[in-house]
Amino acid sequence: MDSKAFKKNKRQMTIFWLILIGITVISAKLTDFNIIHGIQTVPKAFSWIISNLYITEESLAKMPSIMDKLIETIFLSITSTTTASVLALFLALMGSQTTKVNNFFASLSRIVASVYRNIPIVAWALILLLSFGQNALTGYFALFLATFGFLTRAFTETIDETSSSSVEGLRATGATYFQVVSKAVIPECSPQMISWILYMIETNIRSSTLVGILTGTGIGFMFDLYYKSMNYNVVSLITMSIVLVVIGIELVSNYVRRVIL
Question: Cβ(150)–Cβ(207) under 8 Å?
Fold first, then answer.
């Protein structure tokens, strides 16, 4: 029986890899992508990077303005994440099987979270760009909506994993809905929720660079400006600054997670 199961799994994996290779070959043909040519251009690409993307004394003079835009980007990411988390918590409480008010609101909450979560942040930025134009508000709403969808789903699953015994115990004593949420659900879920919020702040700092290119705000706008003017020395400094900030935020976030979890 084990031998038959092994042969079946082996056959399924073989079929899977053949289909995957077939899709790759067809995609390469349709897009005129030459894998061999792509590999051959890698040394030239590294040579160009070494020749152009280096920091000079002139580019360092732009550091104060780069820091201003970086700070703007960081605060935009934090603000959009924290405000989205408040609304996401409310919707998650409605959508969780543990704390749902009724089936209608539970289903509605999950549908809303699914729709918002599955629309890419770039799509949100392009949609909002038509309504609000190129400004910080567009970037904020793009980050807010994408974060809202993700955190609603994450918070809902976190609440669903809450120990039902504490919830049932409070309900048995006659506790109200708000007492159950505030005394049992929130205290137990808070560490994991804070972890999700920190994760989204990290993610949004990365995403806000791309959003800034589209909305003309933050560090993304500065990157796009100097890249289009072919001032690659400043581009290199901006890129390095973004990398260092992201690493710094991640280190702080990991430390906070270790403390609360």
Answer: no
Residues 44 and 49: their CA atoms lie apart, in Å, by: 9
Residue 211 to residue 136: CA distance in whole angstroms = 10
Eight-class DSSP state of 34: -
Q: How confident is the model at residue 165 (pLDDT cuts 50, 70, 90)?
A: low
* Residue-level pLDDT at 10: 80
Residues 253 and 194: beta-carbon distance below 8 Å = no
Two structure tokens written together for 17: 């890899």
